Amino acid sequence: MAALKAHTGATTSLYSPAGTATLLRSRKRRVAFPSRVRVSCSTVVIGLGGDSGCGKRTFVRRLASVLGDGAAPPRGGNPESNTLVGDTATVICLDDYHSLDRPARKARGLTALDPRANDFDLMYEQVKAIKEGRAVEKPVYNHVTGLLDAPELVRDMAERGQSLGSITASIEARKPDFDAYIDPQKQYADAVIEVLPTKLIPDEEEVGKVLRVRLIMKEDVKHFAPVYLFDEGSTINWIPCGRKLSCSYPGIRFAYGFGTYFGHEVSVLEMDGQFDRLEELLYVETHLSNLSTKFYGEATQQMLSHADFPGSNNGTGLFQTILGFKIRDLYEQIVAERDAVAADAVKA
Length: 348
Description:
eleven-stranded mixed beta sheet; 23% strand; 27% helix; single chain; ATP binding; alpha+beta
């Protein structure tokens, strides 16, 4: 296995044709991006798939923080850009591989999710080149104009200037293509963050205000040990509210167990509800195992450091942070394994 596959919304996966590619490099090196992306020969690719607005951008920002990389938009670009560059990680937004700009898609009646509107062959060739340590010159998509900019111009804007009505209409128009091209990617993912309506509130009108989030982790994945609650292999339902964890209505419930997902054996960690006091997350963290943290309380520290990020008071932020730790650990294992193989080859 060369990388982790994830789906947020979302899903995490190794070769994800829609979403974001995060490139991790074992040797620190400044990169010129996006006109030229240059990496070392020890590149690990993390594929992150999901539809617009499901949390991919927040996820990669949490991941960059876990890596201690300080990845940020290129100097002179928009501070809210989806393009992030650092010493260890570079994030490439796969919207950059649209082969048709917004006017052309509209003229042909295609959504941005349709394979006919994207150059996945170029994406594949460039990611392959980057993994091999070769520099690439890539396109940059402009979300404001809906056009493809020259490679040296970074204008991948998060603020697209669209009204709520136009966004809603866009989501509805994209739904068939989401079902056809994006949602099926979950079956290839090693980890999936699934966002669902809460089961804590009986009133349907209030359900959307609280989220139930599931972290689905595939079993028997090399370099990836699923997180578990209390006792590995058991089925757990836990309401942690009490003196150590404040819970206003409707409360918080955690669950852990096993199942199958697209025919694969998986373990599932679930959080329903939200935190009142984020610092009290430490109580929950002490009962989670296989987090791949570097020190006691690192998950709580990361969550507090980014309390202003979307989802920081519910399971989306917690599970994004946990997956960040797992990706860091996976990356370190892969690099160590490659270094060991190289050392053995030298001895031979």
